[in-house]
Amino acid sequence: MNKNRKVLALGVFDLFHVGHLNFLKFARQQGDALIVGVAPDAMCLKSKGKAPIINQTDRMTIIEALGIVNTVTLVKYPMIETQNAVNWMLDLGINKVVSGIQWQGTERWNKLTKHLAAHHIEVIFAPETPNVSSSAIKTTIYNVLSS
Q: Which molecular-function annotation in GO is an example for this chain (predicted)?
């Protein structure tokens, strides 16, 4: 069923933690080859108003070291640029896209899902790992340093 299927998993992957690992394991189970798209520093800065703690080169190096990952690339376009994002994914030859469940039902992903479906590319949302996130880790570090 998943024979020769390329899966694209998208994320920032800042302060790599078990939630990221679970997300990538889930994505890997969806096909035969796992391509991971890491959001570039500039894209994060523009969309979130702040850069990641770990720079994009180091985040990519961490992801590349995982045996379940076949290829790591920088995300070329933000998902809000629907047609550019679709064209980028078509260039990668992927069959399925995996994103975090926090994006399910959002306007940008509803639009992107519709456009990808026209090219027979499925979008699925990975379950969340409870009680772990890069934001929570940053808050914990801040609280420790402030006390």
A: nucleotidyltransferase activity
